C-alpha cells in the first residue's frame, strides 16, 4: 500500500470507531435529561432510577468518545497536512467553536451534573443536564458545518491558491449542513432508542426487580426509534435532492447508474458486479421513475449516469493528475472520477435497511409490551439485544457512503461556487513514508481496540448490574435528612 491508501485507511478506521460513540452520546444525553425532567416534575422515583441508570452508561460512553475523538483533529496535521493548509482558513472558525463548546460548555456542565446531586437545587441541577445535552448537539452542528463545507464549499474567495473565508454565516448556514444536521441528530436518537429497547427489553424479559423502570425505558425507546426513523426518511429525501444538484456522481454511484435515464428508475437490489465494465451484466430490480422523484420531486427528471458524468468531469477538472512527484504513483496518471461502486451502492442500501430494521424492532417491542404485557419468548432478548447494533451499522454505512461517494475529491467542487475551490484527495496527503503511516495506523488501531474492550467491559458490568449497581442503598427513615435521599453516587 502507498501513503495515500494507508492514510485513508487510518482516517477511516479511527473516524468510524469514534462515530460509534458520538450518536449514542448525543441521543442518550437528551433522553436522560428528559427522564430527569420527568422526575423533577412528578417526584416519581421510577424516573430518578431511570436517570441514574442510563446516566451511568452515558458517562462511560462519553468518556470513551472524548478519548477517541481527540485523534480526529490531530490527524489533519499528521497525515493530511496539505489538506490542512488548503482548508485551514475555513475550518479554523467552526472547529474553534466546536472546541469551545465541547471542552468548556460540555465539560463544565457535565461536571456540575455529576457532582451536583444533593449539592445543587433540583432545578439548577436539571438545567446543567440540559446545558450539557444541548452543548453536545451544538458541538455536532459545528463539526457538520465543517464537513458540509467539504461537500459543498460556500462563503469563500479563492486567493493565492487556496480558499479564504469571507462569510462565516454562509459556512454555518450552508444548505448542505442544514440538511445534514437534522438527519444526523435523527440517526443519533435512533441509536439511543435502540440501546434503550435492547437493554430494557432484556431486563424486562428476565422479570427481575424494577420492572416499571424497564417497561418505561423500553417504551420510551420504542416511540423515539419510530419517530427518529420517520425524521430520517424526510431529511434523507432532502439530502438526496441536494446530492442530485451538488454531487451528481455520488447520486449516480449510489444507484450504479451507468447510463443517463429519463425518467430514472430506483434500484432496489442488484445481482452481479455493479463495478463491472459492462452494465448489462448487472440485473436490477427497479421501481420505475422513483429515482427521478427522489432527485427532483417529479417523475420525469433526467438523472445523469456515470459514463456521461465522467466526460463532464474530465472537461472541467482534467483527464490526468498533475505530473507532480508528491502525488507518488498517481503523478500524471488518468483520474478515476468514479467512486467505489460496490461501497456506494450497497452502503446506501445498508443505511436504509438497517434503519428500517431498527425502527421495526422498536415497533414490535411496543406491540409486545402493550397493556402491561411482558414478552416470554426466548427469541425476544436475542431480537432486542441484536437490534442495538442495527442503527450503529446504519449510521456507519451512511457516513462511509457520504465520504467515499465524493472521491476522488476531498473538497468537492461546488457547481455554482468559486472556480478553483476543490481538491483531489491524492493532493491532500502529507509527505510521509509508508513506514511512518504504517506505524501510526497499527498503533492507533491497537489503542482503539484496547479502548473498545474497556468500554464493552464497563458497559456489560453496569448493564448487568441494573438499577441496583448505580443506586446507593436506601437509608433507614431515622437516618434520612429529607425526602430526597438517593444520592447520585458517582
UniProtKB/TrEMBL annotation:
First-listed, main subcellular location of the protein, grouped into a coarse class: membrane
GO MF terms, alphabetically ordered: electron transfer activity; heme binding; metal ion binding; oxidoreductase activity, acting on diphenols and related substances as donors, oxygen as acceptor
Membrane topology label: Multi-pass membrane protein
InterPro entries: Cyt-d_ubiquinol_oxidase_su_1
Record-level GO cellular component terms: cytochrome complex; plasma membrane
GO BP annotation list: aerobic electron transport chain
Keyword Iron: yes
UniProt similarity note: Belongs to the cytochrome ubiquinol oxidase subunit 1 family.
UniProt xrefs under PANTHER family: CYTOCHROME BD UBIQUINOL OXIDASE SUBUNIT 1 (PTHR30365:SF15), CYTOCHROME D UBIQUINOL OXIDASE (PTHR30365)
Protein name: Cytochrome ubiquinol oxidase subunit I
Species the sequence originates in: Amycolatopsis eburnea
